[in-house]
Recover the amino acids of this structure.
């Protein structure tokens, strides 16, 4: 049984999609997702806008679930010690919202296994699944880079492009046959 | 420079005193603090009452600061890497309240150095200052038991009875002379 630290934003929660959706709704401009590739997060939006959207009440509560994450995290948690580790502290409003979001979408994760932090340098685990170099570079266990538009240039890590690839990496049952992962947990 | 994980409740925040005060105010009964000695937290109160008080909105926001903690944590943070690590996840309302409490009373602690978690088994540091055996017993660094009524029977740890003793343990400047620790930071 391994200890696995899993990031929320852009890993369990599709933050990028939500940012594009909210921006389109509130600013009336649709941004082509490919414009987000290979550049720092938020920099495809006008100066300060991404930070403003992220800081607004309700943003983190409404993020859609990343495709496949519920089934695979559930299956992982049945076989391993899974911790959700989110750098929530930069956005204080997100603390309550992320807690409620996890209760709704990942009710099988115990409160004991949730960590809201700032820097992740204090986290000790066997694996960390994250989309940020800054979190993975100081991690002493095995880092797994979850693909996000901003991290496409990174080549230093084992990359997982989807939750299906996470399931395959950890050799979860029923993955290769295509059967529902729900049956594993 | 050492990495030091510091607990909030009963270490930086005088939770025990606040619990006694709120109980006296809301239930009209003054409990002698010595009745809390050597027994599990909350068990000196009628069944379920301590949990009810802790779960009420505002409880964690109003806890008084533990004597000496501000000065010594500030001095520690000037010389070491200090992380505030609180098991806040059991009481979801406490997330926002603890964040606001830290901003008010410990404004020199960066959001990057705050961790709200459930289980502390995921925390990696050189030292952990905590009042709970359950947090210290699995810690791989050096545990320091901060004295609280419920932990008086514990004999397995290096014990610190006050923030003055924490300052002495880490050999902070200006401690032994009795000069203000404020000047160190």
């Amino acid at each position: 049984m391994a200890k696995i630290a899993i990031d929320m934003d852009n890993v369990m929660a599709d933050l990028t999609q939500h940012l594009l959706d909210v921006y389109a709704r509130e600013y009336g401009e649709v941004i082509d997702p490919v414009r987000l590739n290979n550049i720092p997060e938020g920099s495809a939006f006008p100066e300060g806008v991404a930070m403003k959207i992220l800081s607004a009440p309700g943003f983190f509560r409404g993020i859609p679930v990343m495709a496949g994450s519920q089934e695979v995290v559930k299956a992982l948690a049945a076989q391993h010690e899974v911790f959700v580790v989110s750098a929530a502290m930069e956005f204080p409003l997100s603390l309550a919202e992320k807690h409620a979001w996890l209760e709704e979408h990942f009710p099988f994760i115990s409160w004991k296994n949730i960590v809201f932090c700032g820097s992740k340098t204090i986290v000790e685990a066997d694996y960390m699944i994250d989309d940020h170099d800054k979190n993975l570079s100081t991690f002493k266990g095995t880092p797994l880079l979850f693909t996000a538009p901003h991290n496409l240039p990174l080549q230093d890590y084992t990359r997982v492009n989807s939750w299906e690839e996470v399931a395959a990496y950890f050799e979860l049952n029923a993955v290769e046959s295509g059967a529902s992962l729900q049956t594993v947990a």
About this structure: The CA atoms of residues 53 and 59 of chain B lie 7 Å apart.
